[in-house]
Amino acid sequence: MLFWPFFSSHTRAAVFASLIPGINIIRMLLMGLGIWKDDATVKSFSRNGDYRELLRGPFCYACSLTFSTLYWRTSPIAIASVCNMCAGDGVADMVGRKFGTRKLPYNKSKSYAGSIAMAAVGFVASLAFMLYFSFFGFIQESWTVVLGFLITSLTSALVESLPIHSVIDDNITVVLASVVVGELVF
């Protein structure tokens, strides 16, 4: 997202920009299927060192990021979906592991600390990118957009905390929640 302002204003620029994370879809498929061997990448993207793990979370992450890029730099939805998935969900995992002693009553693998961190960091990152894109004139900053980011971040954190990750990856549900709620509030 930091480099989105440097792409042209042509309508195909979003498609071109989405190719950058889109290449990772192909990488995750090739490595996850065992066709392309890269032990260092497998170790950095998997929790157990199993190359097949790349077909779950990392593959979904690359797909979601590619999809979000298509919304592009003039959309608060793109900002919210990327910031909630990348910044919010990433920090939630770290904070939850370190400080997550109090678990959520409906999902014992998630904590209050992680969920609060996700909502807070997703929201703050969204605000930062709103200001960044408004500097380039791509988005108009307003209190309505700020409120939309808050609602979207809270909803994304709630959806991420649901005990459904064995059915559908949170890298998909967080982005879907951001897009659906974003369509309603922006």
TrEMBL record:
The keyword Lipid biosynthesis does not apply. The chain crosses the membrane at residues 12-33, 116-136, 142-159. Keywords: Chloroplast, Kinase, Membrane, Plastid, Transferase, Transit peptide, Transmembrane, Transmembrane helix. It is a multi-pass membrane protein. One of its GO terms (cellular component) is chloroplast membrane. It is found in: Plastid, Chloroplast membrane. Its main location: plastid. GO terms for molecular function: kinase activity. The keyword Mitochondrion does not apply. Belongs to the polyprenol kinase family. PANTHER family: FARNESOL KINASE, CHLOROPLASTIC, PHYTOL KINASE 1, CHLOROPLASTIC. This is Phytol kinase. It comes from Stephania japonica. The lineage of its organism: Eukaryota, Viridiplantae, Streptophyta, Embryophyta, Tracheophyta.
